[in-house]
Amino acid sequence: MAFTLYSLIQAAILCVNAVAVLHEERFLSKIGWGVDQSVGGFGDEPGIKVQLMTLVRSVRTVMRVPLIAVNSVCIVLLLLFG
Fold first, then answer.
1. Rounded to whole angstroms, how far apart are CA atoms 26 and 22?
2. What are the residues whose beta carbons fall under 8 Å from the beta carbon of 60, sequence distance 6 or more?
3. What is the span of the domain harbouring residue 70?
4. Which of 3, 48, 49, 56 is most buried when burial is the number of CB atoms within 10 A of its CB?
5. CB-CB contact of 64 with 21 (8 Å)
6. CA distances from 22 to 7, 15, 41, 43, 77 (A)
7. Do 56 and 22 touch, CB atoms closer than 8 A?
8. Number of compact structural domains in the chain
9. What span, in angstroms and rounded, lies between the C-alpha atoms of 12 and 48?
10. What is the DSSP string of 24-80?
11. Global pTM value
12. Cα separation of 11 and 77, whole Å?
């Protein structure tokens, strides 16, 4: 397999898919990354854990519908061009 732009895009889509399917109650709370663990004080800088959890929630919220379309296009391209 050659190192092409399409393979980089496909790898990025796979990573976004992996983040999008993480379930908060079933997986993330078991490893200590649930909603209740990210409570901080007013004026405190959010830590890396809180920022990553915000990123995961944002990806799950915003990218749900576009990921369906992008995955469909990738599947069609793979079926057509191998």
1. 8
2. 19, 20, 22
3. 2-81
4. 56
5. no
6. 23, 11, 26, 29, 26
7. yes
8. 1
9. 22
10. IIIIITTTT-SSGGG---TTPPP-HHHHHHHHHHHHHHHSHHHHHHHHHHHHHHHHH
11. 0.69
12. 15
